[in-house]
Amino acid sequence: MTSSDLDRRLKAGEKVVLIDVREPSEVAEGMISGAINIPLGELPDRLKEIDADKEAVIICRSGGRSTRACEILLENGFQHVKNLSGGMLGWSGDVE
């Protein structure tokens, strides 16, 4: 999913689960409003925190870790996962 697609959908009020897989020190610099921080290394142990029935957009710094996170989710039965292309480096929307 592109940054502009996600920004448009969020501004339209669509409900999308945002999972930021960066480390807490990276998230401290800002993350997309409403995102949940689950560092990639913790993801396998925290799968129950993610609603498998809802679309989840996975976010990292540039797209690499989020690609791996999508693979982990798909391997564990999640069907509605998307990687944010370019990660936070490509994000131009609001951050908290």
From TrEMBL:
Coiled-coil region(s)? none
Q: Which residues form the Rhodanese domain?
A: 12-96
Pfam families per UniProt:
Rhodanese (PF00581)
**InterPro entries on file:** GlpE_sulfurtransferase (IPR050229), Rhodanese-like_dom (IPR001763), Rhodanese-like_dom_sf (IPR036873)
PANTHER family membership: FAD-DEPENDENT OXIDOREDUCTASE (PTHR43031), SULFURTRANSFERASE YTWF-RELATED (PTHR43031:SF17)
Q: How is this protein named in the record?
A: Rhodanese domain-containing protein
Species: Ferroacidibacillus organovorans
The top of its lineage is:
Bacteria, Bacillati, Bacillota, Bacilli, Bacillales
